Amino acid sequence: MNQDIYRKIADCGVIAVLEITDASDAVPAAKALVRGGVGAIELALRTDAAYESIRRIKAEVPEMLMGIGTVIKPGQAGDVKAMGADFALAPGFNRRIAEESREADLPFIPGVSTASEIEAALELDLRVLKLFPAEPLGGVRYLNSMAGPYSYLGLRFIPLGGLTLDNLPLWAAESRILAVGGTWIAKKGLIESHDWDAIERNAAAAAECWRSVRK
Is the pTM of this model over 0.90? Predict the structure, then answer.
């Protein structure tokens, strides 16, 4: 199952990170992303509207690959799996959350920023990892330096944190990158101001950039 999800993530290439404060904005935002060519999201569990937003997107935009972010509390993995989440992510590595995700049969992508965290993830056979915060850590150069000793293991990374349309090509050019993600595509302000056209344009630009590098 997990490999199927990871293939779908790779096929999407771009993951839009969403922080939704009003659940009524969830479906219009998701539809704008799909129109622009972005078919995967990381919906952050950082607001009171998050769970209702998941329900609405699953019901009304079923083609969207539903990733849930900021899964850091006990019980959240099982909750979002029951709601139809396709995968979960976290900003860091928490063994308890990783184990709960496995018990829930929910593909889990933990955040890593050090070699020690990579090895902690490997101990649980987690081989798709979220590099966070990717750009502040040192960008592509940092990732290649840190992940180099593990290249023979076939690890794949999803960088988040500080990515933009300007630096996206650098990440897309790296074979160990499974997909890229960021908030710039559907910023909180764009969602709250209902600027669906801007979100669609951002999604289209990001998707085209990814495809042009990966083709």
Answer: yes
Q: How many Cβ atoms from other residues are within 10 Å of residue 159's Cβ?
A: 29
End-to-end CA gap in the chain: 26
> Which pLDDT value is given to residue 3?
86
**What single string gives the DSSP state of each residue in 37-103?**
T--EEEEES-STTHHHHHHHHHHH-TTSEEEEE---STTHHHHHHHTT-SEEE-SS--HHHHHHHHH
**Helices 196-214 and 26-36, interaxial angle, to 10°?**
40
57-108 pLDDT per residue, tens? 999 999 999 999 999 999 999 999 999 999 999 999 999 999 999 999 999 9
Non-local (6+) Cβ contacts of 55 within 8 A are 83
Which amino acid, one-letter code, is at 111?
G
Provide the 10 A C-beta neighbour count for residue 61.
19
CA distances from 196 to 11, 25, 44, 193 (A): 24, 10, 19, 9
List residues with catalytic annotation: 42, 130
Can you give the CATH number for the domain in which 170 is found? Answer: 3.20.20.70
Task: Look at the chain and report how many structural domains it folds into.
Answer: 1
Full residue range of the structural domain in which residue 67 is found: 2-214
How far is residue 110's CA from residue 19's CA, in Å, rounded to a whole number? 19
Segment 133-153, tens digit of pLDDT: 999 999 999 999 999 999 999
